[in-house]
Each structure stands twice: as C-alpha cells, then as structure tokens.
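[Discussion] Sanity-checking designs against the backbone

I'm trying to build intuition for which residues belong where. Below is a structure token string of 447 positions. I'd appreciate it if someone posts a full sequence so I can compare it with mine line by line.
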C-alpha cells in the first residue's frame, strides 16, 4: 500500500494535514467526522485500520484533518461550513484529487452534502455513512438525531472525561466494554483535539442543518446506515436519502456508530469502483447576493447624469473589489445594483456587511439580500427559484440593511455573525412563507 506520509495543504494562513494511501485508479477523499488524526488512522491497534487498508488497496485514499483537529493548525472557533469547504478544496488540489468520490462519515456528512451541491463538477460520487443532515430533532417534522435531553450529559462527559474515552459507549456500544478499549480511544482523543476544541465541535454539531439543500444534490449518492447506531438510524438515513434525487439507501449489518468494518468497505468499493456515473448537470447550489441603491432615481435627479455615471463607476469598482475579497463573482448588473454569486453563505453575508458602510461613505445607501439554493446556468445567465427568492429578500431590506433567509442562517453555524429573526414573510410570487433574518456583525469582532 503506497503511503507518502503526512503532507500539508495551504488555505490562506492555515495548513491542513493530509495523507494519501494507495494508488488505485479511483480517488476517494475521506471527510472526517467529529475528530481525527491522520497519523493514527492506520496504526495496528486502531479500530479503523482494517477498513482503511481495504479501501486503500483498491483506490487512492486521501485522508485529512479539519482545522482545529489532529495535525492541522489550531483555531479559536469552529469554522462555518463554507470555510470548511474551502479547506477541502485546498486538500483536494494539493493531493491532485480532481474529481474524487467523497466519503462523508458522521459529522463530515453535512459538509460533504453541501460541497457536492455547490461543486458538482468536482465530485464523482458521494458516500454518506452514519450521518444526518441535522443531528438533533425538530418536531413535529424531524424526529431524528440525538435527543436534546442527552446533549447536556454528553457535554459533561466531554468536559470531565476527555482523553479517557469520553462518549465511547455512544459511538462504539458494547465495544467500549472490551478491556483496554477506553485507554485506546482516550489516546486517539488526546491526539485528535484539545478538550476545549472537542467541546466546541460537539456544540456546533447540534446546530448543523443542511436539510434544505438535499434536493439540489444531483451527484450519484450512496447512503449507508446500520441498526445499533444511536446517532443515525436506518429509518432516518432512508428518509433523507429519499430527499436526494440520485441517492440510494443501503442498510448494513447491525453494529455501533463507529464500526468501520468489511461490510462498509465492500459497499463503498462497489459503489466507487463498480458504477459508471453520468456527467453532472449545469445546476449547482450557490449563494446569491442582491444589492440595490436606495432612492437611486432621486439621486440621479439631484446629481445629474454625468455625476451619477461617475458615482456608479465608483460603486462598481468598490463592489467588484469586495466581491473579489470574499470570493464572489458578479453575475450581472440589476439596474442600480448587482446580482452576485458565492460558493458559501457566510462569505456572501460578510461581503454584504462590508458593502453597506463602504458605499455609505460614498453617499450611496444600499439594501442587500442573501439566499442559498439551486441555480441553473444558461450560457451567461442564471435562473432558478433561489435567484428569485434572493431578489425578493433584498427588496424587503431597508437602507443599510442586510437580510438573509433561514437557510443562510442554518448553514452559517460557527461564524461570528448574528442572525436576528424578522419573522415569516410571504414573498411576491411565492405561496409559502419564508423566514427572514437581519444579519448583524457584532461590535469588535473581525472578519
């Protein structure tokens, strides 16, 4: 089994540890769960060694540590999902994984789903194991996940027993009772995350929610679950698989959440190596941002055509500079504003919050709307429900205000922004109500 050792990919100032095992024709990128350490995955006593060797024997397996875990750079907060997607991009590029299969396990599942929806051209196929789009119930429509009354118990166990095998019973069931297992799992924990980071990551898990993007994932997907998994039951996995257009569900033999056995390896390999996948369509998940200059007609009348054209040139240069800063791209002008696309909702919201004061200092007050959803590209034009929703949300905003949809809020978990609910609104042309949030940057918090 070919192993080049530990390498580092770079995303801005952050360095992300990764390893490549095997040299098969098909590349699999493992999206780790809660914690990981790439140095320990294939140690002889590791509970994951047999699984990894089986996968690496037939593929080119890329494994990596998320920032804040394992051998990757530490952080002081849990990065939102779009920042994690940037990290995954960096690892894929560094490892030469142009269009791999993504294997998302446990907490790595939601980010895998979001990545496949946002960058379908970079994902050949998607395998999801022991994961959910949301890890806590939201009654009455979503009864799945970890019970809220147990979350405090789990947090206490992390605080008091991190590095001693905390949550071993939840993840490994009866395996946790095997003599010596708690010592082994405790050593893995100590090498994978600090106690504070482990707690922050655990608390962030309870807030993740990507249910609203499931229908936009067109990538061929295999969803796997097993009875005995207290995190993701087969019933829950089957339900969310049914919401994905090209997903199929397969139930594995019974076992605990953390059991990575030969049955799982065989299912992954059959899907990755034995199935021909179609090319992806032009539909992708994107974050849309709409801006509009408030009272532009009055400003034109007061300033005159020549001066107004000059001010619009200043507006365009400033907007384009901030779009570039946050990784956005202008799709088109919308009269007195812009329609822009971003790869992640947090970037778009932050861009909007910087645009407001920057343009106000030039005498132009704007309203901004942000939404995320499936968009369809037709040549140089973009269409789709998400585009119309984003425009309608922007139209609701007042001068110098950034508004966003609930989906943007849900997918921005872990960022420093605040989302203040303005209640449900019936947007023009839509029958269902949409919850709208005002986006606020806390004072003194840098981007």
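Best answer:
Here's mine. Compare freely.
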């Amino acid at each position: 089994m070919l192993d080049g050792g530990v390498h580092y990919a770079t995303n801005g100032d952050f360095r992300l540890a990764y390893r490549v095992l095997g040299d098969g024709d098909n590349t699999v990128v493992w999206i780790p769960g809660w914690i990981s350490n790439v140095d320990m995955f294939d140690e002889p006593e590791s509970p994951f060694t047999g699984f990894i060797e089986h996968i690496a024997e037939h593929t080119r397996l890329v494994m990596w540590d998320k920032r804040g875990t394992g051998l990757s750079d530490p952080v002081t907060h849990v990065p939102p999902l779009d920042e994690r997607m940037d990290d995954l991009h960096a690892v894929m590029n560094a490892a030469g994984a142009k269009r791999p299969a993504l294997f998302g396990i446990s907490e790595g599942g939601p980010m895998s789903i979001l990545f496949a929806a946002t960058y379908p051209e970079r994902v050949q196929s998607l395998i999801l194991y022991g994961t959910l789009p949301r890890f806590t119930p939201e009654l009455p429509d979503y009864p799945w996940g970890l019970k809220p009354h147990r979350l405090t118990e789990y947090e206490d166990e992390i605080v008091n027993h991190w590095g001693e095998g905390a949550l071993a019973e939840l993840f490994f069931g009866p395996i946790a009772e095997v003599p010596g297992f708690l010592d082994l799992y405790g050593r893995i924990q100590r090498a994978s995350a600090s106690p504070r980071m482990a707690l922050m990551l655990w608390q962030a898990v309870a807030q993740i929610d990507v249910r609203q993007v499931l229908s936009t994932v067109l990538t061929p997907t295999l969803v796997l679950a097993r009875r005995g998994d207290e995190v993701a039951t087969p019933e829950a996995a089957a339900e969310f698989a049914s919401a994905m257009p090209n997903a199929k569900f397969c139930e594995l033999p019974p076992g605990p959440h953390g059991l990575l056995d030969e049955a799982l390896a065989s299912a992954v390999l059959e899907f990755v190596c034995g199935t021909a996948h179609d090319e992806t369509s032009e539909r992708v998940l994107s974050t849309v941002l709409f801006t509009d200059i408030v009272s532009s007609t009055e400003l034109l009348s007061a300033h005159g055509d020549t001066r107004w054209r000059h001010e619009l040139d200043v507006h365009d240069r400033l907007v384009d500079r901030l779009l570039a800063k946050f990784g956005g791209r202008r799709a088109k002008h919308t009269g007195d504003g812009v329609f822009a696309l971003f790869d992640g909702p947090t970037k778009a919201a932050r861009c909007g919050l910087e645009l407001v004061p920057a343009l106000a200092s030039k005498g132009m007050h704007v309203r901004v709307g942000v939404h995320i959803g499936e968009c369809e590209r037709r040549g140089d034009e973009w269409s789709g429900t998400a585009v119309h929703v984003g425009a309608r949300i922007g139209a609701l905003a007042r001068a110098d205000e950034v508004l966003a949809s609930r989906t943007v809020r849900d997918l921005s978990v872990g960022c420093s922004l605040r989302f203040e609910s303005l209640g449900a609104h019936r947007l023009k042309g839509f029958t269902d109500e949409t919850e709208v949030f005002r986006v606020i940057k806390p004072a003194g918090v840098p981007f």
